[in-house]
Amino acid sequence: MAREEGTYKAQSAAAGGGSPRKKPQAEQKGSKLVPLPTDSLIPERDAGQTILECRHLGIDFGGLHAVEDFNFMVGKTEIAGLIGPNGAGKTTVFNLLTKVYQPTRGAIILDGIDTANMTTPQVCQAGIARTFQNIRLFDSLTVEDNVKIGLHNQVECGMWSGIFRMPKYWLAEKEFHDRALELLDVFNMADQAGAIAGSLPYGAQRRLEIVRALATSPKLLLLDEPAAGMNPSETAELMENIRKIRDEFQIAIMLIEHDMDLVMGICEGIAVLNFGKIIAKGTPSDIQSNPQVIEAYLGTQDEEAK
Amino acid sequence: MGFLTNLINGISLGSVYAIIALGYTMVYGIAKMLNFAHGDVIMVGGYICFCCMQYLGLPPVLGVLLAVVGCTCLGVVIERLAYKPLREAPSLAVLITAIGMSYFLQNSALLIWKSDPKVFPSVISLPNISLFNGQLVISPISIITVLACVVVMVCLTLFTQRTKMGKAMRACSEDKAAAQLMGIDVNATISMVFAIGSGLAAIAGVLLCSAYPVLMPTTGSMPGIKAFTAAVFGGIGSIPGAALGGILLGVIEIFARAYIGTQLADAIVFAVLIVVLLVRPAGLLGKEMHEKV
Amino acid sequence: MKLFKNMDKTTRSNLITYTMVIVAFLVMQGLGAIGGLSSSMKGQLVPITTYICLAISLNLVVGISGELSLGHAGFMSVGAFTSVVAVSMLQGMVGSPLVRFFLGCAIAGLAAACAGVLIGIPVMRLQGDYLAIVTLAFGEIIKNLLNNLWLGLDSNGLHVSMSNAAALGLEQGGKILINGPQGASGIERISNFTLGFVLVLFTLFVVFNLVNSRSGRAIMAVRDNRIAAESVGISTTKYRLMAFVVSAGLAGMAGALYAMNFNSIVPSKFDFNNSINILVFVVLGGMGNIRGGIISATLLTVLPEKLRFLGNFRMLIYAVVLILVMLVSNNRQLNNAFDMLKEKILRRRGDDDDDETPAQTAEGGAA
């Protein structure tokens, strides 16, 4: 607790401010971060409007503290980054947030609601959607069906209406179809709606996973290494898309990524994880110059990171 | 005394199940397949021993030995011909192939030995042991069955823990690709497991037929399913689990027969399996595996 | 023709299946009318429709939901015996045998679905091979319980016993409906081929419509990737259970159809081997491929009868064929060669299509 992030002062206040419901300006790089009691930071425009709060979150695997005392907050429209060396516990944090693992300690508060005792599907309905590091699509189904499955809880139609083709079924199917195509349009994938998901190229599969997650109408979108395996131009496009999603859907995005250009380029607040513990929090420039972070990535020798 | 008699019978029957279940569990551990033909290998073992003793007039020891040799070869041949080409195939295809193999063995036996039940000659010519003024009678075959089970268990444990081949077996069941990279011949190891499992099935076949001396082409199927249940009960893939599951199952079955009814005994055995799996989804001694996210 | 071409793939494929079933029915009816069917074939018609229904319903679990069930015959037997009891009780109340048949079917389906729920709720905690062994165990338990069930009907209503027929304490004129291991006898034979055909259509209707709905997509999502399905808010237990219970209910109705085609049925008929047979229909027809399942169920029900002259060799040949089909269909080299061939043919046909579109439209107009 002896760290200094709490006293951090934002350097530039070029674009912050304004009502939180208002669309954030395109230029987000210099968004102002404001400190919170838990020594977390959120963008100033989200002041008092956190979507996610983790309090002393932790999990043990056997004797190993895979994640320990994880305190973190995400603002309502923030793009937050979670970085750290391999095996630091980043994906485990996502698995805790989505209740793939039940936390051993601590609390996760989503939009004011404690998610203790919720299951993965319940957390999704409460508003957390995610993508996976190793892509997990419904491989044998079409692109459109993948998105329709993402819309599962957005459109009601029971088993009996489905079997006996009640009027409700036709209405629901129309809504499924229209909304699926609308969402696919965000990533310009509408023309691939009929393709089998498993046969798509790698980059398209990653995009489809994001669309599917968006279909669940999340308040917080978790992206696990969205740029893995992408070339620089694809990564640049992805960065644009991530911003576009936040602006259009007005949601918070939290991402794990090893591509530092992407992380430093779009994230407003960043947390660095090492051996399951947060070793630094702050803005991109803050993290870049943090000696502890440099040590975690490059070893003990004091060398310039960049 | 009735209780004690039942207990002894139960442990004896359970020991047979345990020996069969060991074959099931080892094959599952390494090939990740439900080998439904295993039960019919038992039947083949029984018939080989029967033929040696009845038609060739060989001594029982030689009959048992030939049965073991015959079944070991049969197991290896089945694996090579039917299962090896399907190593990459979906598990359902392998399951259906195993069922096909089971039908094949049963119907071959039906053609060779006909459907009429054969009375299995006694392998052991020792008198029954009578205790407490004849209130408790133990047949020598019960004792031999239990002893055989213990010996098999000890040998298998030593084999898997101490020998190079045993370690290779365990490595293959953990991760075949990694084992191959370490220079282990995966195909040879799998063949070895089928050989051991089928050899054990032959022993189980002789013991089963000695205790319940009726031999038919379908003799192996019900004990096969029960032993499979025992393997799952104890935690499939685990050797001590198979032994524990087998013996428990045998005891439960005999007690259910004695105190509840012959007809319902099987239902109770299966009901116990379900209850155990609900409490411990991976069986009594099984390890629960989680998919990595 | 144009309408047909514009339809999406699944609708078109489903229509082909419906058409196939209807044409097959009409052909068989036609053959029956002109006396082209042997009496053994006539006796096979209802069992064939029964096994088609069973193959379709098991496909819902094995192919669509991706779970291995080895106890499908258990649900069939629940349906069969329930329908026998239900129809006997309805005999005095409902005059028309047709209505009795449908009521019997519905009650049988309901009973089997209830059995499905009872079994499914605990079982759905398990996965993969563990689920398979538990369904096997349940199939055996159902068979065992029915072997020990005595049920009689007299003017006082139903009498149940788990020990023997005498314990029922029926009054004079009472009728034993289920007689332990001897099963049910004196069943009113009200099934026929047409009713079997109607049930096949109904089963197809339910399965196709379920698959192409919100619930069906959720079922397939769980099959394709359980963790991803949960992450988008789908309760895996609910949808696995849904597939299992609907399948059980349909199997129960098929069981009712089967039972009411015979004078008597015994519980041991619905054993593990029967469950395996149904599974073989599904696997040989192609997992999740309903049409394939219908064809293989038909062939594998008809062929054994036709091959009776082979005697004991019949089952041996069946076993060898089963193994060979599995080996060949899963041989990678053969599959690759087959795929290449298929692609070639498709490409050629595609070219033809472009050339002959006007001709085809003309043809469609004429037809």
Defining key terms:
heterotrimer, B: 293 residues, mainly alpha, ABC transporter involved in vitamin B12 uptake, BtuC, 11 helices, 4 strands, C: 367 residues, three-stranded antiparallel sheet, globular
Could you please describe the fold and organization of this structure?
The complex is a heterotrimer of chains A (306), B (293) and C (367). Chain A has 306 residues and is an alpha/beta fold. Chain A is built from 10 helices and 12 strands. Helices cover 33% and strands 22% of the residues of chain A. The longest helix of chain A is centred in the middle third of the chain and has 20 residues, at 167-186. Chain A is globular and about 65 Å long. Chain B has 293 residues and is mainly α. Chain B has a single domain (2-115, 135-279), classed as ABC transporter involved in vitamin B12 uptake, BtuC. Chain B contains 11 helices and 4 strands. Chain B has helices at 2-31, 38-54, 60-83, 91-113, 140-162, 164-174, 176-181, 186-211, 221-234, 239-259, 265-279, and strands spanning 118-119, 129-131, 136-138, 214-215. In chain B, α9 runs parallel beside α11. Chain B is globular, with a radius of gyration of 19 Å. Chain C has one domain: ABC transporter involved in vitamin B12 uptake, BtuC. Chain C contains 14 helices and 3 strands. Chain C has helices at residues 2-6, 9-33, 39-64, 72-90, 97-123, 128-147, 193-211, 214-224, 226-231, 236-259, 272-285, 290-306, 313-329, 332-366; strands at residues 150-154, 157-161, 175-179. Classes of the chains: A alpha/beta (306), B mainly alpha (293), C mainly alpha (367).
